[in-house]
Amino acid sequence: MKKEEIIIKKFLMGNEAIAQGCLEAGIDFATGYPGTPSSEIITSLSISNERNVYVEWSVNEKVALENAIGAAWCGLRSICVMKHVGLNVAADPFMSLAYTGVKGGFVIIVTDDPFPHSSQNEQDSRRYAHAAKIPCLDPATPQEAKDMVKYAFELSEKYEIPVMLRPTTRICHARSDIEVEKFQIEDLKPTNQRFVKIPKEKRVGRFFKDRDRWVLVPSNAKILHRELQIKQKKIIEDLNGTPFNKRVKNIKETKIAVVSGGVASCYVKELIPNDIPFFKIGTYPVDIDRLGEFTKNYEKILVIEELDPILEEIVKMSTCSTVLGKYTGDVPFYGELNQNIVYDILIKNGITPVVKYDLKKPVEGLPARPPILCAGCPHRSILYLIEKIFKNGIYTSDIGCYTLSPFSVDTCLCMGASITIGSGISHCDKRDVVATIGDSTFMHTGIPGLINAVYNNANILIVILDNRTTAMTGHQPTAGTGQNIQGESKELSLEKICQACGADFVETVDPFDINLSKKILERAKKEKGVRVIIARHPCYMIERKQNVEKAYYEIDVKRCTKCGDCLDYGCPAIELYDIKPIINDLCTGCGVCSDLCRNGAIRRIK
Amino acid sequence: MSFDLLIVGVGGQGTILASRIIGEACIIEKRHVISAETHGMAQRGGSVENHVRIDGTMGPLIPIGGADMILSLEPLETVRYIHYLKNDGLVISNNVRIVPQKSRVLYPPVEKIIRSKVSKPEQAVICNANAIARKAGNELSSNIVLIGIASRYLPLKEESLIECIKRVVPSKATDVNLKAFDLGRRWKIS
Q1: What is the DSSP string of A527-554?
Q2: Is A98 helix (H, G, I), strand (E, B) or coil?
Q3: Are residues A253 and A236 in the same domain?
Q4: What is the mean pLDDT of residues B123-131?
Q5: Across the strands, what pairs with A260?
Q6: What is d(CA A339, CA B1) in angstroms, rounded to the nearest whole number?
Q7: Alpha-carbon distance A248 to A252, whole Å?
C-alpha cells in the first residue's frame, strides 16, 4: 500500500499543539502537576485515544519528574510538565539529571508566565536549563512549539540527555491553525479511507542496570560531569542545524541589528523593516561563535526578549559592539512585551516600524473587576468565620483559589508555605496563627510542614480547605478524592494522614454548616499546639455536575434592616439594588447568607 | 495584514466560545489565525479579553490602537478596552450591565463614553443582546447574537460561521444558537 502524507489543520491551543506533537512523536509516558499556563498539556494527553499513553497527575513536581525519569531510564519516550515555579520544587532531580542522562527521549516542559497572569513571580526557566546544562527550546508560536517538541525527543535520544521545552503564556494559551500530520492510505475507496496518524503500539520499557551511570556517588559524578561537558559542543552543532534559529542577512549596510527570541521575536518581526538585520534565537545553549559572526558587523545590537536578559548576556559575550537591552534601560526588566512596547523600543533606537498604530490612551478611573471567589464557594464561609473568631489573628495562606478571598489571607509565598511560615511565626508572635491550605496543596508540600510543626511544638491551627479538587487550574483530581486522571483510585484520608503526622486535634466540618463550623473553630481556639480542621465541601463547579437539588433564597424586604452583613460576606450572588440587597441569578443555594443574617430576612423559597 | 478582533466581557459570559467560533471559521476557509485567551486567575468573574487575529501568523496580541473590531458582552468592559480600537474601527457592544462587586467607583455612563470615543456614530453598534437572545430562546446566547451582528462586517463567510456554531456549541443548544445568530444578523441598527 502506498502512503501519502497529507497535512490537515486544526484550531489548537498551544498546549494542545504540544500534546499533539508528543503523540506524533510516539510518546509513552507523561506526568505533571497542574499549574497555569501548563495544565492543558496533560489533560489533552489523557483524553486522547490516539495512542495508549500512561498519564498521571502526580502529587507534586518533584514526584512527577522522578516518576517520568523512571520511565525514561526504562527507554520510554516520556514528558514531565509543570509551570515555572513547579521547577523550583523539582529542582533537586532536575539539577543532577543531565549527569546520568536518559535512555528514552525525555522532554521536560516548563511554562513561564511573564507579567505573571497566574503566578507569584516572573522567574525565567532558561536560567535553570543553563544551570543544569540541559538544552532548552524556546518557541515563538504554537506551531513552532509543536515542531520543537517532536525534535526534542530526537535530540534527547541522540545525546541521551533530557531536553527542556519552555513555552510562555502567550504560546500555551494562544490558539492557532496547527498542522496535524496524517498518513492517508491511498488504495482504499474514498468512502472508507483510513488515516494512520499516530503509532498505536507502545514501546516496552525495561530498566538495564548500570551502576556507573545510575548511581550518582561522587566517584561517578566526577566522570559523568566531564562527559556531559563534552556533549555540549555536539549538542550546539545539532541545534545549529534546526530551523528554530533564523538569521536574516542585511541587505544594506546598517549600524544596528536586532536579536530576539520567544514570542517577542514575533512582535519584532511584525514591526521591523526588511533591511534591518535580525537574528531570531530559539535554542539554548547558543553558539556564541556563530552569533559573533553576525554581531561583529554592527555598531549596535538591540536585544528584545521577555523575562531575564539571558540573550542579552550571551550577545555581550559574542561581541565588543554596544549591546542595548534591559541593562541599558531600553527594554523593560519586568512584565510581558507587546507590539506597542516593541514599537516604542524600535523608535527610540532609530528604527522606523513598518506598521503604525493609532495613538490611544485607556479610559481612566473605571471600576475594577478583579477575579473573585465564585458564588457558592465553600472556601468563603470558612475563611469568613476564621476572621470573625480569630480576631487579631495572623492568617498564613497558600496557593489556590482561596488567595482571591478578602478574608483570612495575610501571606501567600509558595506551595505549602502556609503551614511552615505559620509555624515559624508561632515561635515569634504571641497572637493566634491560622494557616489555610487547599487539599491539593496539602498533598503537594503541606505534609512535611505539618510533621515539622508537630515535631517542633509549633502553636498553630491548620485549616485544610478540602474542596475535593484542584480548582484554580481547571479541576484536576487530587489524591484525597478516590479519583486519578485515569479513573478510580485509592481514596487517601486527610484525617488519617494528619493523625499519622502527629496532630492530636483533628476535626472535620462542612463549611456550609455555619453553627458547627463556629463551634469547632472556637474549640480549636481554646487549645494549644498543632490543631487541624478539615473543612470539607466540594467546589460548586464539581457539585453542579452531580445534579444536587438546588435551593432558592430571597431577601424579605420587610425584615431586612439594611445592616449590610450579607453584602460584607462578599458573595457575588448578593448585590445592592437601589439601596436594598437582592439575591441574583448567580445564587447556588448554599444558604450561608441565610444563616448569617441576624434578622432572619433571607429565606429559602423552594 | 490581519483583521484584528478583540472579544471582551466578564468571565463566564462566553468570550472564549465566541473566539473559538471565529477561529474555527478561519480553519474552514483555510486561512491563518492566531488568538490569545484568558485562563486561570482571570476567569473567576473577572474582566476577560480574547484577541483573535484573522489571517494572523505572528504574535497573538492585538496592539493598542490596532483593533479592527471590538466585540463586547458587557458595556463597562467595552470602555475598559476601547483604546485598542483603530481610528476607523468598529465597536459592537452589549448594553446589559454587570456591576462589579464592592467597587467604590460608580458605574460610569458607559454608552456616552463609548460614543465619545469613536469619530463617526456608525462606528458604535450598541444593543441589548440579552433581549435578542431571549427572543431566540435563551439569554445565554447573547454572545452568538453579537457574532450574528458582527458577521455583517467580518471578513468571513456567513456559512462558515453557521457551520462553526453547529460544531462548537453543545448539540441540544444548536437551534437556539442558530436562531440567535440569525436574529443578530438581521437586527436593525438604529
Answers
A1: --SEEEEEEE---HHHHGGGTPPPP-EE
A2: helix
A3: no
A4: 97
A5: A280, A304
A6: 14
A7: 12
With beta carbons less than 8 A apart as the criterion, state whether B38 and B163 touch. Answer: no
Query: Is a pLDDT exceeding 60 seen at residue B42?
Result: no
Judgement on whether residues A169 and A199 belong to the same structural domain of the protein: yes
The answer to the question of residue A373 being in a domain is no
Query: How many Cβ atoms sit within 10 Å of the Cβ of residue A57?
Result: 25
Q: Residue A330: which residues within 8 A CB-CB, separation 6 or more?
A: A302, A324, A345, A348, A349
| Structural domain includes residue A367 | no
Residue of chain A whose alpha carbon sits nearest to that of B24 = A11
Same domain, A197 and A336: no
* Of residues A337 and A197, more confidently modeled: A337
The total domain count for chain B is: 1
B190 pLDDT higher than 70: no
Per-residue pLDDT tens for B129-150?
999 999 999 999 999 999 999 9
The answer to whether residue A323 sits within a structural domain is yes
Range of A79's domain? 3-240
Check which CATH number belongs to the domain holding B123 and give it. 3.40.920.10
- Subunit contact A170:B82, Cβ cutoff 8 A: no
Burial class (CB in 10 A: 0-12, 13-18, 19+), A218: exposed
Query: In which band, very low, low, confident or very high, does the pLDDT at A153 lie, cut at 50, 70 and 90?
Result: very high
Query: pLDDT tens digits, residue range A458-473?
Result: 999 999 999 999 999 9
Residue A233 CB-density burial (10 A; 0-12 exposed, 13-18 middle, 19+ buried): exposed
Domain check: are A113 and A140 in the same one?
yes
Residue A550 confidence (pLDDT): 86
Query: How many Cβ contacts (< 8 angstroms) between chains A and B?
Result: 166
Residue A188: predicted pLDDT: 47
**Which residue has cell 514570542?**
A263
- Same domain for A55 and A164: yes
Q: Which domain holds residue B51?
A: 3-186
* Distance (Å, whole) CA A567 – CA A578: 14
CATH number (domain holding residue A404): 3.40.50.970
For the entire predicted model, the pTM comes to 0.96
Pairing between β-strand A580-583 and β-strand A574-577 as defined by DSSP bridges: antiparallel
State the pLDDT confidence band at B188, using cuts at 50, 70 and 90: confident
**Residue A278 grid cell:** 535580525
Q: Determine, yes or no, domain membership for A571.
A: yes
Do residues A264 and A316 both lie within one domain?
Answer: yes
Alpha carbons A283 and A57: distance in angstroms, whole number: 28
Residues in A closer than 8 angstroms to B107, CB to CB, are 367
In chain B the first and final C-alpha atoms are separated, in Å, by 31
Mean pLDDT, range A346-353, rounded to an integer: 97
Q: Is B48 on the interface with A (CB under 8 A)?
A: no
Give the domain-ending residue among A199, A214, A240. A240
Rounded CA gap, A81 and A30, in Å? 8
Q: Using a CB-CB distance cutoff of 8 angstroms, which residues of chain B are in contact with residue A357?
A: 63-66, 86
- Mean pLDDT for A52-81 is 97
**Mean confidence (pLDDT) of chain A:** 94
Collect all residues with Cβ–Cβ distance below 8 Å to A322 and sequence separation of at least 6. Answer: A299, A300, A301
Is 90 exceeded by the pLDDT of residue B41? no
A510 shares its domain with A577:
no
Mutate: best of B34, B79, B138, partner A, most A CBs <10 A: B34
Closest Cα in chain B, distance from residue A155 (Å): 27
